[in-house]
Structure formats: C-alpha cells, structure tokens
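INFO batch 0412 | record 1 of 1 | parsing
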Amino acid sequence: MLRINIQTLDKVMHENKLFRRTRLSLAGWYVMVMGVILSVCSLGFYEAILHAHRVTIDRELQSVGTTIHDSLGTVLEQPAQVTLAATRILPDFCLVETSCDATQEDIEAVPETENYYLRLLDSSKKLIAVAGLRPKGLQLTTPVSQLKTLTVNGKRYRQISLMLHTQDGSQWGYLLVGRSLQDFDEYMLTVAYTILFGLPMGILSIAGASWWLSKKAMRPIYLSYRQIQQFTADAAHELRTPLAAIRANVESTLMLPKLTEAEARETLEIMGRQNQRLSQMVADLLILCRMDSGMEKLPQKQECICLNDLVTDIAEELAFLAVAAQVKLVSEIIVSQNVKVMGNTEQLYRLVSNLVVNAIHYTLPEGEVKLTLEVNANFALIHVKDTGVGILEKEQKRIFERFYRVNSDRSRQTGGSGLGLSIALAIAQCHQGNINVKSQPGQGSTFTLKLPLSMGYRQ
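INFO prediction complete | emitting tokens
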C-alpha cells in the first residue's frame, strides 16, 4: 500500500489539474443540490408556520364570533334595535347614533384598544353599533359565514360575517367580527427575514463544508490513482528487465558469424529462465488482480485444513531450496493435537511457502529458518523465523507493498519479483487472518501468520 503524508497528499492532489477540477465540480454539485434542498425546506418551513398561524387565527376568530353571536341572539328582541342587555356584552360596546357620538366615516377618532373589532349591521347593511378596534374604511358588506382578509390603510384584517336573529327567529341584521393581523404579519416578516438572511449563510457554510468534504472524498481516490501509477510503473520496470535480457541475448546471438550448438543451448537456457520469470510474475499479478476485484475468494463450501500436515509438507518440500542456499530449515509443532482451520488448502499452502521462501532468500549461508506452529486462544499461529539480514523499522511498514524489496539486488539474484509478501497478505486477509512482522537489522526477522481456528477445535 502506498504510504504518504496527508499534507503532502493534499498538496500533490491540489496541484493535479484533473483532480482539482474534479474536486471543484464535486463541491459545486454538492452546494447546488444542498442549496436547492435547503431552499425548498426553508420555503416549506415558512409555509408550515404561515399555515399553522392562519388556522389558529381562523379558529380563534370563529370561536369569538360564534360566542358573541350566540350571546346576542338571546337578548335581541326587535330587528335593528339594540337592547340594554346587548350593550353590556362588551365593555366598549356602543351605538353609533347615540352613545358613540360618531358616524361611519369618523369612527376612526376612537383609539385602537384591542386586536378585535365588532360591527352590528341592520338588514340593509347600515352600521348600528361598534366595539373594539375602529379601522376607517372597513368593508361592511361581506358574504355571510365566510372568512375574508381585508386591507385597510395598509393594515390587514381577518373578518367573519354572521347573520343575527331575534329571540323569535326573525332576521335582525349582521354581525361582523374581525381581528387585526398586524402582530401576525410582523411575526411572519421576522421569520421571512431570518430565512432570507440565514439561507445565504447556510449555503456559504455548505460551500465550505463541501470543499472540505470533497477533499476527504478525493483522498482515497487519489491515493488509489497514485497506487495504480506506482503499480504500473513497477510492473513495467519488472517486465522490462527480463524482456531486455531476452532481447540482448537474441541480438548478441544473431551477431555471431557462426552459431555453435553450445552457444545456441546457452542462449535458449537464458531465454527459458527469463521466460519462467515472466510467467511467474504474470501469474502473481493475475492472482493479485483477482483478489482485488473480489474474484479470487474462498469457495462457499470451505474445507477443513490440518495445519500440522501443511507445515510438515512445506518443510519437506522446501528442504532442497534451503540446502541449495546453504540454510538450515527446521520445523516445530508446539501442540499435542491437530490444529484445524477452514479455508482453501492451495491458497494457504502458497501463503506459508511464500513466507518460508522469502526467509530463505534473505538468510545468509549457514543461517537458519525455523517454521513453528502453535495455538493461542482461538487462533492458530504460524511463525517463520530466520537469522537473516533483518529489516529496518521504517521499511517494515512497506514490505507488503507490491514490488517493494528491502534488498533489491539480493532479491533479483534469487529471482524474486517483490510480490510474494503481497500475495501472502492478501490470502491471509481472505481467510480472516493477518500477518505481523518483527525484525531487527542484522538479527533476523519473524513473520507471524494468525488464522482463526475451526469451530470444532478444542485445546
């Protein structure tokens, strides 16, 4: 895995025109979508408050109008005649022609003392009595039993008209009950200003957040992009070396005036070795690509694998490689019974053998590689310990990267491509396991494979 400082990654990503444009486009679309959503929500919020207050005011107005209507209906005796009992229903109730000393035009002289107003009209729509607010220019003709919004001198009023009857059921006239909407309009204006000023601030906050979030969202994408770039460059470099060797040998052979059988055989052997190296590298790359894409997974029906037999078989089959490298290979099983895990035998065999082969390659002659199997809690542990050259602490975090080699010259001499540990880690993770490494330069390394035990295993 490519490791890079976050600040350095952000700086390099910002300098890349493609990712800078993509980040700007991503942030722009996010702001636009969230701005539309926030605007619609704000409008919906405003309409919800407006509707709730309208319903409340209408219910309140209907309740007040019905209460006054029912109270007057019990005291009215003659059409267009207001009884004394009727004048006592409201404290400021007064007759226009007698007690108010005002006409329909100059009723405005009385100061407004309440939010409500009340008007009594006879059957011919003539004003008889007033109470409450005295708005000048008020419309006195309105459909019966209907709510209506009126605008008088720039102020809004909500009004309901009810028909009045006398005690014997005769038509007396009309009752107009209205309410000033000034407090309601002022409140809704405050809400509107809050939304109008708050919406741009919200969108600006969204813009800042989207720019920051787009950077976080682009980091793994850019990191994958860098990994692909590095992987492509490393693969091209690794493939170029054997191809260049093959080409050089072919060209040098063709330049010979006369080709002997020994020279032809030597050339073919070199080409064969390089071809084998290419084939192995392509096979390793194919396995890694399959694992990355999810194609190389454990079969649905997993098999129970005995790690005791696996460790023994690997130690026996790699003994010849250890002898050729003048390295002592020993195995030790520190358990009294068979250790079993669920998985794929072929993949686990390749995993452990890669660790052992890697240990042999980096161990000097007369050194030792020890393969150990033990159990700890619910996990099986396979240790591959060597007395090799060791690994620096700063390089221990990178040894599982593809094509990364601690000692490139030594790895090339042994035919390594730098993919063995990457494949081993991928297989371990596929089996819900992991690989850890402990090492000190000059004192060797210990790789520990940790795998979950089979459900039926008991210590």
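INFO post-check: The chain has eleven helices and 13 strands.
INFO record closed
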